[in-house]
Structures are given as C-alpha cells and as structure tokens.
Design the sequence.
C-alpha cells in the first residue's frame, strides 16, 4: 500500500485513535478510491483489520443527518437502530450542514415513501413521519430508512445518511378456543353449545410464546346480527373457524371488547344466538396477532338435549344476583361483561317494559362499577362497549338509561389518559348517540338531567377525541368518528396552519340534514396561544339533539369547535376575540308552525351552550335563510340556532311603530296594502291599533 499524501504531496500521519476525522481539503480528489484500514492489536494476539474505500471528489456535498423525534410502538436500541411493531409510527428529523439543501426520504424493501399512507407528511420535508402497517412491512424483516441531501447548484454531489428498522414479530405458536366451562375437563372435547346467561363459557388462548414478555390477552365477542357487513379477522385454534363460516356478515369493529390482561382466559355468560368469540394476543411491546375467532351457539336447547328448566325471569334473577356479587367484590370488569349479555338477552326474552327496566338497572350498575375500579383507558373502552350494548335499542330507551349513559361518560372523565383506538372511540360515540336518538324520539329529560347529560356529553367526547389523537403529528389526516346522532373529528395542527382555515363539520345522520356546518377561523389567535408555532388539537363535532333546551326553541343540531393543547388536552379559553369566528349552521324548520317559518329569519338568534342554558352573548346573526344561518362569534364553544317567537317581527300581527312598522297584516306579502316590510303601499290605507293586526283597504 502507498501512504496517503496531502495536497502538498507530503505523507499524512494518521493518529492512533478509535475515531478518525478527515477535514475537508486534507486529501486531493481522485478517481481511485482511498482505502482506509483499521488495525486493532492486543498483546500477543493476531491483529484484526477492517478496510473501507473512500472516494474523494471535487464537489460540494452536504453533510446530512437524521434523528428520531418520537416512536409509537417501539424503541431505539443501543446501536441506534429501531425495534418497532408492524403498525408502529416513527417521526424522524432531518438536517444538513448546508443551507438550501433539498432533502428526500426513502425506505428500501419495496416500501414506497411517496404514498401518503406510508409517509403522511410527505417525503421531502425535514420532518418525516413513517407509518408502518402489516400490508407493507413484514414481521421479522429489516429495513433501511435513507435521507438524501442535494444542493440546487452545479458541481455538487449528494450526501446521505441511514437508519435501521427491525420489525417485531407478535406472539406465535398457540391456539384459541371457547368452550362451556362446566363441561370442560381434562381430555374432554370442547363443548361449544350452551344455555343463555346461565352456562359459563371460557374463552382461552393457550401455548402462545414471545421473547417480549409479559404476554397479554384481550377477549371480545359479537352476537350474530349485531354488526354490519364487513370482513373479519383471521382464525386459529381448536374450534376457531374461518370467517366465511363463522359469520362473514359480521363486522369485527362492532364487537364488544374487554380490557387486556395477563390472564390467558376469560369466563363469562352469553345471550342467545350464534356468537363469534375473539382474542388478540400481544407481547409487551404491543405487537399483536391477527384477531383469532371461535364460534359458539347459545340457546334454550342444545343439540345434546340439555334444556333450560327455569323461566326467563328466574334466569335473569340468577344473573342479577351474580351482578350484585361482582359489585360488592369490586369486580367492575365482570359487571361490564354481564351487562352486555343481559341487555341483549332481555331484548329477546322480556316484555318491552321489563326490558326497559332491566336496561335502566344495568346502566346504573355500570355507572356504579366505574367508581369501584382504577380508571384506565382500556377499562373505559370496555365500559363504552358494555354501555353501547345496553343502550342499543335507542327508540325504546327510558329516561333512566339516557341519564345513565351521561353519568357513565362523566365518571370516566377521570380515567387515566392514553391512546384510544378507533373501535373504542366508536363505542363511546355509539353509546352517547343512542342516548341522543332517544331524545330525538321524544324521551324528554328534566332541566337538571338535561344540563348534566349535555355537560357530560361535550366534555366526555372532547376527552375521548383527545385520546384518539395521541401520537399524532401536526399535519396528519384527521380522525373521524360517526354514529347516527353524532359526528366528530380531530386533527393535530400548528396554530399557524389553522389560522384563516375554513373547517367543515358534517351534520349528524339521524337529522337528515345534508348541508355541512362550517367554521371560518380568524387570522389572529395570538391572544389565545401567545405563539403560532404551538401544536393544538382541532376538534369539531355535531350532535343531533339539544338537551336542556327549556325556554329555547332550538331548530338545528349542535355544532362545536374545540381547540385544545396537544400535550395536555386542556381546552384553550377562546373568548373576547377582536376578529370573530364566522359560523354557518344548517337549520331544520320542519317543527315550526307556518307563522314560525314565515317569521324565522327575523326571530333567529345564534346561541351557545353555557353550561346551564343556551345564551347568545358574543354572537350575532349576520345572515339567515330557511336552510342556513351565519353567525359571527367572538368565542368558541358548542353552538345552535334558536328561534324566539317573543321577538317582535314584521308579519307577527302586532304593529310596532317603534320598529318602524306602519302596518302589520300577519303576512309578508306585497300587493295587499301592507308590504313585506310592514309599510303602507301606494293607494292603500291601513287601520289598526298599536300592538294589534292591521286591516288595509284601497284608498
């Protein structure tokens, strides 16, 4: 070998150090690579060597680097590479030592980083969000993330740096089954038929193993006919059947799921019907198996001839006693498990009045259970699932059930905050939507009940959507949750990105209103946040009923916009703005009288929920039609449109000279002597006392 020589042709003496830094200009450019060799010696042992070729070019090459800003579903190992789950999200920060460097991110292994589903924020910005998914990243495989930097000038080269990814594999090797517990003994066959809310079934996942311990197990179930048509999860196990035979018309997202546990089984009783039991097995990092399924049949008579000897009421009495025992023993999870089964069975076996009384009782017990356990996000999700089953017959709900749903939501506000899945947020929205639908159908609440319900609804769903945004990066696509009487979304943005935006919010499906509401955001929110660089959660929502509307005549759904701090979820106090929010709100006048519809645009007010009543402070109507009202409000909250029949209006048959009315003949028609603006028309004379209707005749 030939020693390296510098530009002055003199040999270069390299230091004997662990790290070697070669400054720019030390070596002249050469088409032939320089070979750097490291020799490591220790005592009398043979020296170890390692060589690497380095090509020096006469170009400007930016030095680029990357760092990991955040990881959801993984961690960074000692060598700097990442050990992540198949559905992890990793946020990288790229940088360069040269201004105006054009950055481009890529991933090997056939991963297309130009696809938004893989890189939600794009692949050419300094911040790179990599969203892994099972369909793109393979378990156990290694991938390389590469950041390339180039300069927009001639005679420049590309610099690059890389980072490694190792994809974690979920637990493997086990089976899943669901069997009648009382008939299960060592060596016996798995009995998959049993009696409703009487026989105890054991859902069991056995022989699963993984290097990342402890392993956790989550179980769930779906009664045939309860879910919408969709594909389900994969199957495995003793009596686990393929989805084509286990109910392909089921939607696993509609299943009721229970809190994860390190216990590999769950014992519970089920309602009548064909039931698909589910299990998901996860390692300590959160890498999960596909959804495992097993089919069971529950009925009054099994194929083996076992018959239910007790009456339905006696069977429910036994189940009620179990429920009371669980409450006394502070087993809130057992309360949730039993409540859903009993509510579903009650629909089939009890009279409507008995079923309503049972659901009211169950809702109260679920609410009591929330006070007898440590509140976690997984327990909240389990409770939402039970609540959505109990309230499922929305048209037949009683006041106690409606109030109970709000009470459950309110009690869960203190639960520990963490990420909530789409299934969890959907169950929460479904439970509260069912309670709203009941009110749309006429289940009226008292003023106090309505106030409490609405406060729990707004604050509770704000809390749920905040947790749905956990791990989001500013600029990612929004999370949307839709239920019949509610529609909600949340997106993380910087304040600077939000300013001046026009935000749209769908109307709830149950209302039948096609138009969207919209919020025009003012261009200056510095008085609220102090800076435009902070990340915030932007949460819009609509609800199809207006509880606690005593003294008001609400003619629209409730539409709201909440801005909260991304790190805490605390709602920002947006009030007394110098530039207002401009809000367009769709209205439904089908419930008004003919006169009410006639006078609506004159009697309309923009109101918001103030915690105990609907008030109009800080809001003004800027335009109104019989389909849409525009409000200018200097604050944020949940808004609605009110029609106040006490507001004096042209056409209300009450002539008011103070309002400039010369006549009022109960209509807004021109050509009858009193015009549509309540002025006397040419060649007509109008008579009538102040405050009464006018009669007009040709002059």
Sequence:
């Amino acid at each position: 070998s030939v020693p390296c020589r510098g530009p002055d042709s003199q040999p270069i003496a390299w230091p004997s150090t662990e790290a070697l830094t070669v400054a720019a200009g030390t070596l002249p450019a050469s088409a032939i690579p320089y070979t750097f060799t490291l020799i490591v010696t220790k005592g009398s042992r043979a020296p170890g060597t390692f060589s690497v070729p380095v090509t020096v070019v006469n170009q400007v090459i930016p030095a680029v680097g990357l760092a990991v800003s955040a990881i959801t579903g993984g961690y960074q190992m000692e060598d700097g590479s990442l050990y992540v789950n198949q559905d992890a999200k990793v946020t990288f920060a790229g940088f360069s030592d040269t201004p105006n460097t054009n950055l481009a991110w890529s991933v090997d292994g056939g991963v297309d980083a130009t696809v938004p589903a893989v890189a939600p924020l794009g692949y050419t910005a300094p911040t790179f969000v990599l969203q892994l998914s099972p369909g793109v990243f393979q378990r156990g495989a290694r991938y390389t993330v590469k950041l390339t930097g180039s300069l927009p000038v001639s005679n420049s080269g590309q610099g690059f740096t890389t980072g490694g990814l190792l994809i974690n594999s979920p637990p493997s090797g086990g089976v899943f089954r669901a069997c009648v517990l009382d008939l299960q003994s060592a060596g016996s066959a798995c009995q998959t038929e049993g009696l409703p809310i009487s026989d105890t079934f054991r859902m069991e996942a056995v022989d699963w193993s993984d290097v990342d311990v402890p392993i956790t197990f989550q179980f769930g179930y779906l009664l045939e006919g309860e879910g919408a048509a969709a594909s389900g999860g994969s199957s495995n196990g003793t009596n686990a059947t393929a989805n084509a035979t286990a109910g392909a018309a089921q939607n696993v997202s509609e299943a009721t799921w229970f809190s994860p546990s390190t216990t590999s089984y769950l014992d519970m009783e089920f309602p009548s019907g064909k039931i698909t039991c589910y299990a998901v097995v996860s390692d300590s990092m959160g890498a999960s198996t596909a959804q495992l399924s097993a089919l069971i049949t529950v009925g009054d008579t099994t194929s083996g001839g076992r018959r239910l000897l007790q009456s339905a009421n006696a069977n429910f009495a036994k189940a009620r006693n179990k429920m009371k025992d669980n409450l006394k023993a502070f087993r809130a999870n057992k309360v949730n498990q039993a409540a859903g089964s009993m509510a579903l069975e009650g629909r089939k076996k009890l009279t409507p009045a008995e079923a309503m009384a049972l659901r009211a009782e169950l809702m109260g017990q679920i609410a009591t259970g929330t006070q007898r356990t440590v509140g976690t996000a997984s327990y909240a999700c389990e409770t939402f699932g039970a609540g959505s089953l109990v309230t499922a017959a929305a048209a037949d709900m009683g006041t106690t059930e409606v109030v109970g749903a709000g009470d459950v939501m309110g009690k869960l506000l203190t639960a520990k905050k963490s990420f909530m899945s789409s299934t969890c947020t959907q169950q929460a929205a479904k439970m509260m939507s069912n309670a709203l639908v009941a009110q749309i159908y006429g289940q009226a609440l008292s003023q106090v009940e309505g106030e409490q319900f609405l406060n729990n609804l707004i604050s509770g769903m704000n809390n749920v959507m905040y947790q749905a945004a956990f791990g989001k990066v500013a600029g990612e696509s929004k999370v949307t949750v839709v239920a019949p009487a509610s529609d909600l979304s949340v997106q993380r943005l910087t304040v600077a990105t939000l300013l001046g935006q026009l935000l749209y919010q769908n109307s709830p499906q149950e209302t039948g209103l096609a138009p969207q509401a919209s919020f025009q955001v003012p261009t200056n929110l510095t008085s609220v946040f102090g800076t435009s660089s902070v990340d915030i959660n932007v949460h819009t929502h609509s609800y199809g009923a207006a509880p606690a509307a005593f003294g008001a005549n609400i003619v629209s759904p409730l539409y709201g916009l909440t801005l909260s701090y991304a790190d805490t979820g605390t709602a920002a106090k947006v009030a007394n703005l110098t530039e207002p929010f401009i809000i367009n709100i769709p209205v439904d006048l089908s419930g008004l009288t003919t006169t009410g519809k006639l006078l609506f645009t004159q009697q309309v007010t923009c109101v918001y929920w103030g915690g105990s009543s609907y008030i109009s402070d800080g809001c003004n109507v800027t335009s109104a039609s019989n389909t849409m009202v525009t409000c200018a409000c200097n604050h944020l909250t949940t808004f609605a449109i009110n029609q106040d029949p006490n507001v004096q209006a042209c056409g209300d048959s009450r002539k008011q000279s103070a309002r400039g009315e010369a006549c009022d003949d109960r209509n807004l028609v021109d050509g009858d002597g009193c015009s549509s603006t309540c002025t006397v028309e040419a060649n007509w004379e109008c008579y009538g006392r102040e405050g009464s209707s006018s009669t007009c005749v040709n002059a």
